[in-house]
Design brief:
single chain; Alpha-Beta Plaits; 2 domains; 5-stranded antiparallel β-sheet; 10 helices; 5 strands; elongated
């Protein structure tokens, strides 16, 4: 049976950036896939744009100061029901509440208080679409079925080089086609690093 893979956004805020590696591993252990990641030092203008729906709040200047006080890490995550799953995994926005209601949540572990809560995540599909687009303008945001996700991966990562190899295989017609193709793929792997020799 097919299923839907959603994408969502998580931000590790400046006050939790020291725990970024632990948080990323916790996210992976919870079954999320990190599709893209960017470490950014936001400007005042970027924070104002990202949080423009909060501009009327009396503490908005503190939000701008907080989010520009150090680098943040923005990540696109994917998983079945990713948006709802991540909201639950992060826990209530107030870490004090999170420590009571969901002590294993990320905000319970890494948040300080309701203002310095360590992490942000998209709450709805529309939020995810807007927020992913803000940090990753070229990202495909619409949710994909599990089969569609696999198809796109194969088309991008495997089919181009495999078609070349199979074409050459048909020309060569070796006695052991599987061994020949395996060796050909190893020799022509586009991801093999290029080693440049220098004269010393």
């Amino acid at each position: 049976m097919d299923y839907i893979i959603e994408k969502t956004l998580v931000i590790i805020k400046p006050d939790a950036i020291a725990h970024a590696n632990e948080i990323e591993w916790a996210i992976i252990d919870a079954g999320f896939t990190i599709l893209n990641k960017s470490r950014i030092l936001l400007t005042d203008e970027q924070v104002i744009e990202f949080y423009k729906d909060q501009e009327d709040n009396e503490d908005f200047s503190k939000v701008v100061e907080y989010m520009t006080s150090g680098p943040i890490i923005a990540m696109i995550l994917s998983k079945k029901d990713a948006i709802k799953s991540l909201v639950e995994f992060l826990g209530p926005s107030d870490p004090d509440v999170a420590r009571v209601e969901n002590p294993k949540s990320l905000r319970a572990k890494y948040g300080k208080n309701a203002f310095y809560n360590g992490l942000h995540c998209s709450l709805t599909f529309e939020d995810a679409k807007k927020e992913i687009g803000f940090f990753f303008s070229n990202a495909i945001i619409d949710p994909l079925s599990g089969r569609e996700e696999v198809r796109l991966f194969l088309e991008k990562e495997l089919y181009p080089i495999l078609v070349l190899g199979l074409t050459q295989l048909c020309k060569e017609k070796p006695e052991d086609p599987i061994l020949w193709l395996g060796n050909w793929l190893l020799k022509n792997n586009p991801n093999t690093p290029i080693i440049v020799e220098t004269d010393e």
